[in-house]
């Protein structure tokens, strides 16, 4: 059967892959164009194999996911019900400095006074920056929800927040909603052959049920394999080898203990040759060890993970995932764009992958339908933006490693100056004298604001020498007021916000 014979003036998008990337892309594009109403110029088909499993991890999001889900038309309560979701208000990094129980937070809410007064020079102990300028760390340490039951769903008026979601359930929910509400066509079959007329143009994909699908745009969401962009069009990978060392992960689903709390943040605990993520859902925890096989063995990595979760979970089966850390040089090539793992992957330390999927899908939605003649321009612009974003992500992830004082070979190698990208070295050279400022991140496509860099850098104890510009820092009164105001806001939050688990249970019961 040749679907191209089904002539219409609509442009056809074929998405290969039904993991989170495939379904999020389908949902975002279909919702934006109101495909279900049938009047737009797009036709979207998603084909996924029932024989090739999804990666099944990826449970921490960015705050951007709130608007994404809202725009798709999903009720937040429904998302919580179906995906055993919980709130995420930031990341807590434990043992990243010297491994003796030290920790710092990267909260999602910016420091108080941000954009008005540079607070760092006025905070006595720089490592205490997040605590002195932001309430969210205090709220997280007490396992509180980001809002009260009186507030509307999706309301982030009190605190910026994201989600922890069951990855499998999330893709299933997006699939059901995309099919029933958004007009996305779904084919369960395996792509067996990809016909390309050049290394810039995919003609069609042939499925194991005999169907041949043609499209104006093919979206490669086939996961690490990158069937279309990588295998067929041969696009090369920009590797992060020598900068980010991790290439493996072991993942576990850990049942909750009795009387459990749900942590409203992702905890990343540094280990001898990697780090362990701990993500609280309402139904269980997702726990995994990300590590480098250059510095440890799989057996030792599993031992470390099992020590972390404790003996009582000794019967849980861990799943090993290998990855090549890096990203495709051209993520949109000809009539093929890769979204998700097929476009690239680096260790999930700041949960950047789903956010990049949201950005890519939104870009597709904004550009399509598109005459073929304009595709080279649009793809070139996209590639330029994505290259910049990937480089910024790599720099930001590396930042978490370079001020460690740990003695294990993995950590010593991680702080070796030869492993630090030049772009990050340049930033650090400036920040030595004044710390990261908003103007350093002025690109419209910037991902992490100066606040994120401040939380991580200062949290690790990096203290700029503010003396060269001391004449700028004559706002002690204002800064003291901000610190006092933060204490007041913190007290208000601590006395009004509910416990995270209680909130979810009561909200879902109402
Ligand atoms: C250890 C780890 C932890 C992570 N943690 C986070 C996190 O906390 N936050 C975050 O944002 N991201 C995280 N990620 C990334 C996140 O998991 C992925 O970005 C997300 O799941 C999207 O995956 P995907 O859809 O691209 O690929 P997959 O889930 O692998 O899906 C691939 C799809 O392609 C289909 N397919 C493949 N070949 C064919 C074929 N020939 N024919 C038809 N269909 C085919 C498969 O059936 C499947 O449906 C993590 C990743 C890893 C490895």
From TrEMBL:
Binding, FAD: 18-21, 191, 341, 350
UniProt keyword Amino-acid biosynthesis present: no
Gene3D superfamilies: FAD/NAD(P)-binding domain (3.50.50.60)
Species this protein is from: Alteromonas portus
Residues noted as binding 7-chloro-L-tryptophan in the record, renumbered to the chain: 88
InterPro entries in the record: FAD/NAD-bd_sf, Flavin-dep_Halogenase_NPB, Flavin_halogenase, Trp_halogen
GO function terms (MF aspect): monooxygenase activity; nucleotide binding
Keywords assigned: FAD, Flavoprotein, Nucleotide-binding
Alphabetized Pfam families for the sequence: Trp_halogenase
Protein name: Tryptophan 7-halogenase
Active site per UniProt: 88
């Amino acid at each position: 059967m040749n679907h191209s014979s089904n002539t219409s003036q609509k442009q056809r998008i074929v998405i290969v892959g039904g993991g989170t990337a495939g379904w999020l892309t389908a949902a975002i594009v279909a919702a934006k164009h109101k495909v279900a109403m049938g009047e737009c110029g797009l036709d979207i088909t998603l084909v996924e194999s029932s024989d090739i499993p999804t990666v099944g991890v990826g449970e921490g999001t960015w705050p951007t996911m709130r608007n994404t889900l809202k725009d798709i038309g999903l009720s937040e309560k429904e998302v919580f019900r179906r995906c055993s979701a919980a709130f995420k208000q930031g990341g807590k990094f434990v043992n990243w400095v010297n491994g003796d129980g030290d920790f710092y937070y990267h909260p999602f809410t910016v420091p108080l006074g941000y954009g008005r007064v540079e607070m760092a020079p006025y905070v006595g102990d720089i490592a205490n920056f997040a605590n002195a300028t932001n309430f969210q760390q205090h709220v997280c340490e007490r396992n509180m929800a980001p809002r009260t039951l009186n507030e509307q769903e999706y309301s982030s008026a009190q605190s910026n927040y994201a989600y922890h979601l069951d990855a499998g359930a999330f893709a299933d929910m997006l699939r059901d909603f995309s099919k029933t509400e958004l007009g996305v066509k779904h084919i369960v079959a395996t792509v067996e052959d990809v016909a390309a007329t050049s290394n810039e143009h995919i003609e069609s994909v042939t499925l194991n049920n005999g169907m041949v699908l043609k499209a104006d745009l093919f979206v490669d969401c086939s996961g690490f394999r990158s069937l279309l962009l990588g295998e067929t069009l041969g696009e090369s990978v920009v590797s992060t080898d020598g900068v980010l060392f991790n290439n493996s992960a072991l993942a576990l689903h850990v049942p909750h203990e009795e009387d459990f709390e749900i942590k409203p943040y992702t905890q990343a605990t540094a280990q001898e040759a990697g780090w362990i993520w701990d993500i609280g859902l309402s139904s269980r925890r997702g726990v995994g060890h990300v590590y480098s096989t250059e510095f440890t063995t799989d057996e030792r990595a599993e031992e470390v993970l099992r020590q972390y979760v404790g003996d009582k979970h000794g019967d849980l089966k861990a799943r090993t995932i290998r990855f090549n850390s890096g990203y495709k040089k051209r993520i949109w090539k000809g009539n093929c764009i890769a979204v998700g793992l097929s476009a690239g992957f680096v260790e999930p330390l700041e949960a950047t992958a789903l956010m990049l999927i949201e950005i890519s899908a939104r870009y597709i939605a904004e550009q399509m339908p598109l005459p073929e003649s304009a595709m080279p321009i649009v793809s070139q612009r996209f590639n330029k933006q994505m290259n910049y974003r990937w480089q910024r992500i790599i720099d930001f992830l590396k930042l978490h490693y370079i001020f460690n004082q740990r003695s294990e070979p993995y950590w010593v190698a991680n702080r070796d100056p030869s492993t630090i990208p030049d772009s990050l070295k340049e930033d650090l050279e400036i920040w030595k004298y004044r710390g990261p400022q908003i103007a350093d991140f002025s690109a419209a496509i910037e991902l992490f604001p100066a606040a994120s860099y401040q939380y991580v850098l200062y949290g690790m104890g990096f203290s700029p020498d503010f003396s060269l510009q001391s004449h700028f820092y004559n706002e002690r009164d204002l800064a003291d007021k901000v610190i006092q105001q933060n204490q007041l806001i913190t007290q208000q939050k601590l006395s009004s916000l509910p416990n995270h688990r209680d909130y979810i249970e009561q909200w879902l019961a109402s």
